[in-house]
Amino acid sequence: MQLSDIPQIKHVDADNFFLLAGPCAIEGEDMALRIAEKVVKITDKLNIPYVFKGSFKKANRSRIDSFTGIGDEKALKILRKVSETFGVPTVTDIHEVSDAAMAAEYVDILQIPAFLVRQTDLVVAAAQTGKVVNLKKGQFMSPEAMKHAVQKVKDSGSDKAWITDRGTMFGYQDMIVDFRGIPTMREFAPTVLDVTHSLQQPNQTSGVTGGRPNMIETIARAGIVNQVDGLFIETHFDPANAKSDGANMLDLQYLEGLLSRLVAIRKTIQSFN
């Protein structure tokens, strides 16, 4: 598929990486619009194709009292409002077969969470909506195994698939990005690097996932050098008080500087080709 196939996507001729960015979860309308407005301004300035990301619900949580969402329809309507207000496409993750058709009414890209990417019925349901399907590589899977997830999308009558690497489990409480997998997965589909989830430290005894946000730029730079097609970055204006994944999100105030440096690195890498 071509990036230009996505409704409202901008800057597709800039020869840049594309960006999926936004909060982990939709906490409310004001916060979503505030984050989207800032990221749209930055990406327009830097000519980066941009997709707003926000989960309409969070199903994979450590504890039963963890934040899961503000209500499915309410959150999906906010995602639609972001798209209509700023003229950008949106992506959200789905967890059940019934989520696919529902979410497809509101967003442009359906994301399959890493823990669920082997769930055939879920992948097929997403593909059958006709939307782009962003397949997150399971933390337990090899890069080579992702060809089967992509093939499920193709066998469902769609060629609209991306792969997103979000790291591989290393022991019980750490994630490692194996950059050898990037060129492998790019043979199957456009490949995105999920920078912030790659820096999670899951399975903490507190039941709250930790993270290493100080390493965001290190991982992002390595992704650009290794020619990923896109980057996935969760960002928030107040990560410490975010309702989900605050420990590994990028503070929004640092996003423009980071992206500016990454664009410069991308231009340098492209000059070698």
Automatic annotation (TrEMBL):
Pathway(s) this gene product operates in, as recorded in its UniProt entry: Bacterial outer membrane biogenesis; lipopolysaccharide biosynthesis; Carbohydrate biosynthesis; 3-deoxy-D-manno-octulosonate biosynthesis; 3-deoxy-D-manno-octulosonate from D-ribulose 5-phosphate: step 2/3
InterPro entries: Aldolase_TIM, DAHP1/KDSA, KDO8P_synthase
Main localization category: cytoplasm
Subcellular location: Cytoplasm
UniProt xrefs under Pfam families: DAHP_synth_1 (PF00793)
Broad EC category: transferase
EC number per UniProt: 2.5.1.55
TM spans (from-to): none
Keyword Protein biosynthesis attached: no
GO biological process per UniProt: lipopolysaccharide biosynthetic process
Top-level taxon: Bacteria
Residue stretches making up the DAHP synthetase I/KDSA domain: 10-268
Alphabetically ordered keywords of this record: Cytoplasm, Transferase
Catalyses which reaction(s): D-arabinose 5-phosphate + phosphoenolpyruvate + H2O = 3-deoxy-alpha-D-manno-2-octulosonate-8-phosphate + phosphate
GO molecular function per UniProt: 3-deoxy-8-phosphooctulonate synthase activity
Protein name: 3-deoxy-8-phosphooctulonate synthase
Organism (species): Nonlabens arenilitoris
